[in-house]
Amino acid sequence: MSFISVSLLFMMFTFDLIHLATQESAFILEKDNFKWQTGGWAKCTPQGGPGGGNCTQFRSVQCRNGVNQRAPPSFCRPEDRPVDTRACTGPCPEDCLISSWSEWTECSATCAPTATKVRKREVLRSEVNRGRPCGDLSELVVCDDLPECGEMMTPLHTWRTGEWTSCRKVETIDIPCGLGQKTRSVTCIDESGRDVPEDGCLQRNRGNSPLDLEICSVPCDCELSDWTWWSPCSQICLDTEDPTNVGSETRSREILRLPDRDGLPCAHLTEQRECDTSNITLAECPVYEWITQDWQDCEPTDDICGGGKEWRQVFCVKTGDITLQPVDEKHCVLNDEKKPASRRACWRECPVDCQLGEWENWSACSKSCGEGGIHLRQREVLAEPAHGGTPCDALYQAKECEPVECAWWRTGAWSTCFLNNVDATCGDGSWYRVMYCISALDQEVDDSNCDPDLRPLSQDDCTVPCPQDCIISEWSKWSPCSVSCGKQGGVQTRWREILAHGSDSDPCISDSELTQTTVCNLHVSCDTYIWQISPWEECTIIDEGVEETCGEDVGMQKRNITCEIDSGIAANETLCLASQKPESHQPCSIPCQVDCVVSEWSDWSDCNQTCGLEAHRERSKVVLVLDANGGIPCPNGTNEERVLYESMPCEGVPPCYSYQWHAGNWSQCLVARDLCGQGLREREVSCQRNDGETVDPGFCVREVFGSIPLSHEQCYIPCGGDCELTEWTPYGPCQPDCGTTRYTGYCRQRSKKLVVDHPEDTLTLCPDLTPNDLLEIIPCTDQEYNYTTAIGTWGQCIVDGPCGGGIRERPTACIREDSRMVPHTFCLSEPPATEECTVECPHDCVVSDWLNWSPCSARCGTGLKTRQRVVEAPSQGLGKECPHLAESMPCHLATCDSFVWVIGDWSPCYLTNRSVNCGSGMRNRSVECPAGEEFGADCARRRPKPPMVTPCELPCPGDCVVGEWSEFSPCSLDCVTVSRRNRSRTVIRPPAAEGGKPCEEVYEEADCDNEVCRLTGYHNKTTDWTQCKPHHGDCGPGIQWQVSTCIDEVTSLSVTVDRCNQSNEVAEQGCFVPCPIDCEYEEFSDWSVCSQECGQEGTQSRSRKVLTSAKHGGRICSDGINQTRPCNIKPCFSYEWLREPWSDCLFDDSFTGCGVGVETRRVECIRSDGLSVALEFCVLPEELALLQANNVVHGFNMSAMDIVTSRTCDRPCPGDCVLSEWSGFSPCLASCFDSSLPGKQTRSRHIVAYPSPDGLQCPDAVVETKLCSNPSCPEFKWKSGPWDGTEIPEREVWCEMEGSSLSNVTGGCLEAVRPPSSVLCRSPLCAEYGSACQTGICQCTDDYQGNGVACYPTDVCRDDAECSEILPESYCAKGGVCRCLKQYDLRDGTCRVPYARTETDKTWVWFVIAGCCVAAVIILLCAIFIVSRGEKGGFQPLDQNNQHPLEGDENDPEMIRMSMLDGDMDED
Fold first, then answer.
1. What is the three-class DSSP state of 1275?
2. Of 733, 909, 1132, 1188, which is the most buried if we count CB atoms within 10 A?
């Protein structure tokens, strides 16, 4: 050290010499006189806000002069200033977070020195990474202001009871669990905790002592079997769509013994793991697809035609399998491919028979004359045969014509009779007529064409009657032939009459001469001829030598075509029209035989059940092609889906068993030392199969719903002479009436029983026993409510089939007045939520058979006749509508010409006086209605019936005789021009010259009136088309008619249609009546998931699609396409624990004591409606809570859930350490600087009373932590109150954790930024230049910075006073820099008096300087070497107070104050 000091002095001397050498160098080296000095790094401290993650270290950095004095920072070079902070590389320490101290408790006693009082605090988070520890959690002081306790104190003896041992089985019992016993220590102690004889305790407790032995239940833990082998992997192939799906394998184990007596529950019974396929190369999983065959022929509902179903085969196969071997449909369904439809509605066309119209009129004869001519008539095809209907019969019909001569003689009218005596006026003479041969074509031909034998006379005798001659009329026309055909022919007649008798008395002519008859239509055939068509014969092969024996047009079929008469006798084919002869041969197709084709058998399925004789396996094959046309038939046994199943029984399948719990008889009550009091009894509980075999209990756990019978229960053996009661039973369920008026709402109760040997001694043993000691009633809820029943509307009727009986539902709920839904037990009654209902089955309309046809609508010609049927049962519900109830068809009556009077000729005039031959008389004639006498009125409607009798006058000889009037000449057809008509008659016999009656008028005229015009008017009236009349049944192809009627415009009556230029009265056409199509649905989908899990609004739905809509009156679709029903109509419950406060630490009622006792409380799971339910509802989801047997396998830790109902407790004995209760756990807190540390919650307890030497000592564990999730970094802030008004103001300052109720936390806020609690700057320091008191701390003002002692200007000086203040003997030079006065030099950071020097002799100075410089360099090197060795040995420079920089208490107020004064001194 001396060497270094000498070196330093030498260097200083050298620098002084340099300074003396030139004054300017002093100012140049001015900054070199001040150096930065650093202290050691302090420990890491958090900086910034919570969670900021800033953990730093600090050290002091000061500017010092040559004599190691603090100088303003501006005196040192700012670019050389070392850093004063750095980030920590290690974990950041965090202090213990602890609450503030509580208030002092009351004194524990009333006299000193035993009376003490305690205050406590709680730990929120223990220290982290060696932060500041928590320290004591309690402080105890003696209450010294109390009077002294006296020396004479009564000794206090107390029973000390220890903790019960675990229940241990009795050695004489071999089973590992069951009834056992437990023990505890029982000693008597005095007030200081020392053991003393039991006499003092017995005396205090009236001779009673606590039990040290008790009967208990040894817990039986669940016992499981060994694991089975791992099952085969569920995935045996590579899933190309999801390669990660490697499958899984499982294993299981059985329950051999159930847990009992609070034993450990059973662990999981199954395990599952992924398959290990690392060493296995799996083939790709097959892909499956639906195979759909072609649709088969339609199968009508009535097996004939109309609507029906058609079917196709749909099954699942492996893609690429050409054998089409069926596989389970689940493979295709797994691909999310819905199975294609295998059935659908269809229509088969009904057979349409050939429909023919009415026969038209006969055509003209095929020959105009001669024999062998035929008449033809035809009928129209209204509907061609189709779909196998009856073919058409012949369309043409023929009959023989009446033979007509090809030529005949035609004569003209006779000329006037030329008298032989030309002078006479009457008498014989001759007349003449023209005669020629005329053909059938009405053309004159050569006479040779006519029969000469039949040649008429062209000249004949005639007579011109004389007035006295007899007058005979001309012959009438021949009447129609009496028959139109026949071998015998018919008869024609003509007649004449006597117009006037002659003068002779003899008759003019005999009566036989007045009529003539002749044969007619002789040998005219009455038969008609038609082509008769037989059915087509079976199709046969055309050429037996061809290979193709089936196919299109490979065969030929024929039918017989014969020309037959209507009597069925074969006739000459020439009589039928050859051009219209139907074909007798046609090509035909012979359908090929189609053999039934079935698929391969599928693989055998797994057994359909795991037990029972009915267990079997199945395999199937499907019909791919149905047999047809005589092919090999399909095997018997296929179902309607054309699937054939084959089954075989499963081998080795055990019988199906049922299981039930079996509980044995209770054992005798076992109490401690075979005395009396509380004890236990037990029984055996086993699982029995229905065959009597006892099996592992796991079977009953799986198969039997409900709780397991208890294997043990408490019992009681009364002690003689005691009033003893059993323990309280558990609280029962809520009920509306507990038999008391104390509760008007729902309540629940529990009870005790009196245990006495002799009931008659009850009053003696229990004189103070009241009903409340045996029965306790509590309300179910804290509030009384009113309840009402809410009833919803009935839903849809849900039936299993399409109709019939079903069930409908409605929501019903019991509603509390606060609108909460509660169980129905709270309401007085529960209305039914379901009821039987009926969906009316469709009742189709039922009609009667057709009634008789009505009379024809027309009186003549063609009309319509109608028949009806009546509705016997109308359609109901969705049934089919009624078919048409009326139908019409044409009816044919006599022609309307039959309603025109047929008037016969007038008979000869029959004289009234038969004795004479002339004069007045009567003549008659026949007037008939051709339709029949019953239709006379119809004929009269057209024309009044002409008279049948009329007067006549037979001229007498000599009277004039005239002929009959001719017809009136026709009128003008236009009926516009006024015209006249006329008629005439001839004079047959002129009157006698004398006495004869003259001739009447032989010519007359008459006007044409309007009636005559109207006689020429007719119009056609056509009916609407009749309703279509189906050929078969009530629908399908049919025929309809339209009837035309010709109406006489005068009479408005029907006449023959030819008057209206019509040829047919009836028009026909084919028609079609659509058959009813019933609505058809697909199957209902599965019921959807209920829309709500609870409440009144839950519904679930299902739907179905309409496959075929109803048409044409078929069964219509119902509204039941979508169905809904209520579901989950139950209260929405929430569950929460009811934990009553723990009772006091209890001991046996028979003594007072200390030590280990029991605390009890009531813990229940309370439902939101106030009911207490099973604990499982607060632990498990509600659906699992219903399965109470699950608790056997999935037990829960009641301690961890804080739901235990009893626990041991400690009542401190005299002299024992007394600890407080554990505080509640703090919030979940995390480290703010180390995210890897888990979140923790902390609780603590403190010492209430310290132990005596003989008492129980205090435990070490007063702080507990537990891990927690979702931790948060706590945020802390300093809070301060207002300043008080004292001379030195003070205020309250505390640290507050945000988000917490704790208002004062130690260890959370940074002490470095703690606001002052008092004004510390009441000192002269803050009165100095450049400083002020701010927030209780002395700080430099603006433009000033501190050095820990005083404040200096930040950048420049402003006057000399500032410089002299901080640097005596200096002034403020140009540029604002403090300089020493000229007579002073700056040395060692101060202005000093300079050394003596001359201005003339400076040479020696330079030599000295040079030598000193060389010596200084040598010395400096040596010094560096020495100093470096000193640093290796731990040497550190000391400050002026012999301390390392920044050593000591970092919280020292002076250090904090100086650090603040040193805040900004490094800025230049």
1. coil
2. 909
1190 pLDDT higher than 60: no
Using CA atoms, how far residue 1296 sits from 514, 589, 622, 1040, in Å, is: 160, 106, 83, 105
pLDDT of residue 1044: 87
Q: Dihedral angle at the C-alpha atoms of 189, 195, 198, 204, nearest 10 degrees?
A: -20
User: Please, which pLDDT band fits residue 825 given cuts at 50, 70 and 90?
Assistant: confident
In this structure, how many other beta carbons lie within 10 angstroms of the beta carbon of residue 1391?
A: 21
Q: What percent of the chain has pLDDT over 70?
A: 81
φ, ψ at 1105 (rounded to 5°): -100, 150
Summarize the confidence of residues 1263-1286 as an average pLDDT. Answer: 82
Query: Strand pairing partners for 1353?
Result: 1344
CA 774 to each of CA 227, 437, 491, 552, 726: distance values in angstroms, whole numbers, following the listed order: 52, 150, 135, 103, 9
Is beta strand 1344-1346 parallel, antiparallel or unpaired with respect to 1305-1306? unpaired
Cα gap 1035→307, rounded to integer Å? 11
Q: What is the sign of the dihedral through the CA atoms of 563, 569, 571 and 575? A: negative
Which of 306-310, 496-500, 808-812, 1212-1216: highest mean pLDDT? Answer: 808-812
What is the Cα–Cα distance from 939 to 900, expressed in whole angstroms?
5
**Tokens 């057709």 identify what position?**
850
**Main-chain dihedrals φ then ψ at residue 687, nearest 5 degrees:** -105, 120
Please give the mean pLDDT across all residues of the chain. Answer: 77
Q: What is the DSSP letter of 1460?
A: H
- Nearest alpha-carbon partner for 958 in 993, 912, 922, 932: 993
Mean pLDDT in residue range 595-610: 88
Give residue 688's Cα distance to chain centre: 44
Contacts for 1428 with CB less than 8 Å, ≥ 6 apart: none
Give the start-end residues of each E strand in 946-1017: 949-954, 961-962, 980-984, 987-989, 1003-1007
> pLDDT band at residue 949, thresholds of 50, 70 and 90?
very high
Average pLDDT of the residues in 638-665: 87
Helix (H), strand (E), coil (C) string for 34-95: CEEEECCCCCCEEECCCCCCEEEEECCEEEECCCCCEECHHHCCHHHCCCCEEECCCCCCEC
Identify whether the C-beta of residue 1168 lies closer than 8 Å to the C-beta of residue 1094: no
CA distance 310 to 1304: 88
Identify which of 105, 800, 770, 433 has the alpha carbon closest to the alpha carbon of residue 762. Answer: 770
- Say what the pLDDT of residue 1329 is: 59
Look at residue 600 and tell me whether its pLDDT is greater than 50: yes
Give, in order, the Cα–Cα distances in Å from 194 to each of 160, 201, 806, 961, 1209.
10, 13, 83, 187, 21
pLDDT tops 70 at residue 1155: yes
CA dist 796 and 1 (Å) reads: 113
Q: What is the pLDDT of residues 983-1037, one digit of tens each?
A: 888 888 888 878 788 888 888 888 876 554 555 678 888 889 998 888 777 887 7
Which residues, other chains included, contact 273 with Cβ-Cβ below 8 Å and sequence gap of 6+? 230, 248, 249
pTM score, two decimals? 0.51
pLDDT tens digits, one per residue of 1065-1079? 888 888 888 888 888
Task: Please say whether the beta carbons of 1031 and 353 come within 8 A.
Answer: yes
List, in sequence order, every residue forming a beta bridge with 475; answer none if it has no partner.
none
pLDDT for 1189 equals 39
Distance CA 1080, CA 802 (A): 10
DSSP class of 1111: B
Backbone φ, ψ for residue 245 (5° rounding): -80, 90
Q: Report the interhelical angle of 1403-1432 vs 2-21 (nearest 10°).
A: 150
Bridge partners of residue 192, in order along the sequence: none
In 901-1043, which residue ranges form alpha helices assigned H by DSSP?
936-942, 1010-1014
Alpha helix (H) residue ranges in 223-336: 330-333
3-state DSSP assignment of residue 538: coil
